[in-house]
Structures are given as C-alpha cells and as structure tokens.
C-alpha cells in the first residue's frame, strides 16, 4: 500500500525527537485548516489513517501524532514525563514548529485527557475538539481491566499470534471485527524487529507512570476543564455504546455542559471507536462543517 502521509518530526521542550504522520489535503481541495489527532495510552498515529483519508478529502491537513514513547517518537529518559501535562506541552511545540495558530484536536482515550489539559494550558490553540470515549470520570473497574494487560511483557510474535492477542483483549469492544480487522489492528499496535518478529510498539514505562488514583482525585479539575472547553468552542463527544471507560451518564453530562457540545453514540463498539464508523465519521464532518 502506498504511504499516504509524510513523516513529520519536531522537538519537545526537553529535547525529544517526536513524530507525526502528516496527511496533506487532497489535490484540488481548498485548504480548510489543521486537525491534530492524539491516540490512546498504548496506541499511535496509525489509528487515524482512515479518519485522515476522510478529512483530507474535504481539504483538512491531518497531523496524527505519536506521543512520546510510542512508535516513531523517542522514548523519554525520564519516565515521569509520561503525563498529560507534558503531552500537552508537546502539542504546543508541534503547532509552534509548524507555525499553526489554531487547530482542531481529536483525542481518543488518553488523547481526551491531553486535549482537556491543553484546553486549560493553551486554550487559544483549540478551534474545536472531538473527545473520543473518555472523560473526567473513568470507572475504577475499567482502569483495572486495562491494567491487566497494558504494559505487561509479551514474547516476540508473528502476525497471526499478534492478531490473536489483539482479539483476546479487544473482542468485547469490537464484537463485529473480522480476522482481517484483528490483523490490521495488530499491524498498527506492533512493530517489526530485526529478526522479523513483532513486539509492542511503545515504551513499557508509559504504564508505570499511570496512576489511576490521581485521575480519580482530579475529577473536579477535569470537569472544570471540560466546561471551559465547551464554553469556548464546538465540541463533539463520541461514545462507544459498549464502552466501560466512558459511561453513558458521563457522556451525557459532558454534552450538556454547553450548547456548543454534542454527543454521538457509536453502536456495537466499546472502547474506543475507531472514528471510521459512519456515525462517528459523519458527526465529525458535521462539526468541522460548522467552523469558519
């Protein structure tokens, strides 16, 4: 398959070389602006290829980032920098490096917390936001579920084994996935070693610095950040109908914080929608269509 993006690199404030997939607007389209996509805890820029194809077709530039410690971005010598505040600062450095005054931010899971944090630290950079399947309140049981597999060591695998592993931890969230879907997810989640086998494509230290109890204590702060964001710009909350990370009542409360906010629920999907689903895709296009 022909690569549909250019590799973009920029430097963080603490000197790390960070990477994004830079998807240019389709030929013949009038440029609309920039969308920055931020993935989940153990995920990377590849998760947004399908969404980027949709958005570039109508004139948007899409920068899908690898957060520090993931995929094409350097691993941090100080693991304590694996936190939403530093990730948000990395997004500021990205926009500065590209002379972008303002962008639409699409965050999935951890990417939601990064977007919310950015909204508190540099609100002028956000033109609109998509908050995909996470919010200010995450059930402890859901965090415990993720903790059972995230960051745990795995032996090197071939693609079939990696696909079986991806299915074993994700089948409840994607009950309609086919064998080919699981192979595609594994290809996005693993990287190839010199011997041809696959290993997970992130620094295990990103998990060791994740403290669920801190997230629980920060709920009031995060709710204030959500209200501040939705009071200023259009915001779309996306929830997978089967999600245990973003409960239905929390999603509804987020969407009710302002007339600027709306909610779309993706059927038959848990945590987290890929944003290639028709319901999510159409809602994102509608949000972008409201922007000047």
Description:
- The model has no long low-confidence stretch (mean pLDDT 95).
- The protein has two domains: 6-151 and 211-289, 3-Layer(aba) Sandwich (Rossmann fold), CATH 3.40.50.1820; 153-201, no CATH class.
- 37% of the residues lie in helices and 20% in strands.
- The longest helix has 14 residues, at 84-97.
- By secondary structure, it is of the alpha/beta class.
- It contains eleven helices and ten strands.
Principal-axes shape call: globular
Give start-end ranges of low-pLDDT stretches. Answer: none
Q: C-alpha Rg, in Å?
A: 18 Å
Just give the CATH class of the largest domain.
Alpha Beta
CATH topology of the largest domain: Rossmann fold
- Helix percent reads 25-40%
CATH architecture of the largest domain: 3-Layer(aba) Sandwich
What percent of residues are in strands? 15-25%
Strand order of the largest sheet: 1-2-4-3-5-6-9-10
Q: What is the count of DSSP helices, taking H or I runs of 4+ residues?
A: 11
Q: Averaging pLDDT over every residue, what do you get?
A: 95
At the fourth level of CATH, the homologous superfamily of the largest domain is Alpha/Beta hydrolase fold, catalytic domain
Structural class by sheet pairing and helices: alpha/beta
């Amino acid at each position: 398959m022909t690569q549909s993006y250019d590799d973009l690199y920029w430097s963080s404030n603490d000197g790390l070389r960070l990477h994004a997939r830079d998807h240019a607007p389709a030929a013949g389209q009038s440029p609309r602006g920039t969308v920055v996509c931020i993935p989940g805890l153990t995920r990377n820029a590849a998760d947004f290829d399908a969404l980027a194809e949709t958005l570039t077709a109508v004139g948007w530039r899409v920068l899908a980032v690898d957060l520090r410690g993931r995929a094409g971005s350097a691993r941090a010598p100080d693991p304590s920098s694996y936190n939403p505040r530093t990730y948000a600062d990395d997004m500021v450095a990205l926009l500065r490096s590209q002379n972008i005054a303002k962008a639409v931010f699409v965050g999935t899971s951890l990417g939601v917390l990064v977007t919310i944090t950015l909204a508190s630290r540099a609100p002028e950079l956000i033109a609109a936001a998509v908050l995909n399947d996470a919010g200010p309140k995450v059930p402890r049981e859901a965090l415990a579920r993720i903790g059972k597999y995230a960051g745990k060591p795995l032996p090197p695998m071939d693609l079939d084994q990696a696909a079986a592993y991806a299915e074993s931890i994700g089948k409840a969230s994607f009950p309609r996935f086919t064998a080919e879907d699981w192979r595609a997810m594994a290809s996005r989640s693993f990287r190839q070693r010199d011997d041809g086998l696959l290993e997970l494509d992130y620094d295990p230290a990103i998990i060791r610095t994740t403290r669920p109890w801190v997230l629980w204590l920060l709920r009031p702060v995060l709710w204030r950040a959500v209200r501040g964001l939705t009071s200023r710009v259009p915001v779309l909350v996306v929830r997978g109908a089967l999600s245990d990370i973003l409960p239905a009542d929390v999603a509804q409360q987020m969407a009710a914080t302002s007339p600027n906010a709306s909610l779309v629920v993706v059927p038959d999907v848990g945590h987290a929608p890929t944003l290639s689903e028709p319901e999510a895709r159409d809602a994102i296009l509608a949000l972008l269509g409201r922007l000047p």
